[in-house]
């Protein structure tokens, strides 16, 4: 079973696909006009729980989990501002509810294809 991710910027929705069929969808926040999310095909190159968070410290702007993309500086991550989900608000990254990014992170591996479409 080969998983992949498709992100629709206009729908502000991330879809997890298994062998080309949608198995889950999640709402996301994406880049604002001045800092648009790039379109194209990328891969997940790294995964890190609690990026930049010290034990007992507050969540960073990256929330509870980070999955870096092959486009340097961009990733799929949680957020410390859950109200931003579903909006054009980021500096180009894909923001998810923390519970959703944790769920997704368990379902995809490093090397998973990520297609971002307008």
UniProtKB/TrEMBL annotation:
L,D-TPase catalytic domain: residues covered: 3-117
Active-site positions on this chain: 77, 93
InterPro entries named among the record's database cross-references: LD-transpeptidase, LD_TPept_cat_dom, Transpep_catalytic_dom
Keyword tags: Cell shape, Cell wall biogenesis/degradation, Glycosyltransferase, Hydrolase, Peptidoglycan synthesis, Transferase
The protein's annotated pathway: Cell wall biogenesis; peptidoglycan biosynthesis
Pfam families, alphabetized: YkuD (PF03734)
Protein family membership: Belongs to the YkuD family.
Name under which the protein is recorded: L,D-transpeptidase
Organism: Tumebacillus amylolyticus
């Amino acid at each position: 079973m080969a998983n992949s991710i498709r992100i629709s910027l206009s729908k502000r929705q991330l879809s997890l696909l298994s062998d080309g069929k949608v198995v889950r969808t999640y709402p996301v926040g994406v880049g604002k006009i001045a800092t648009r999310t790039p379109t194209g095909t990328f891969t997940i190159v790294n995964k890190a729980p609690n990026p930049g968070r010290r034990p007992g410290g507050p969540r960073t702007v990256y929330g509870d989990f980070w999955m870096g993309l092959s486009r340097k500086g961009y990733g799929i991550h949680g957020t410390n501002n859950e109200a931003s989900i579903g909006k054009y608000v980021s500096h180009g990254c894909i923001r998810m509810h923390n519970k959703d990014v944790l769920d997704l992170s368990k379902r995809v591996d490093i090397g998973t294809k990520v297609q971002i479409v307008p």
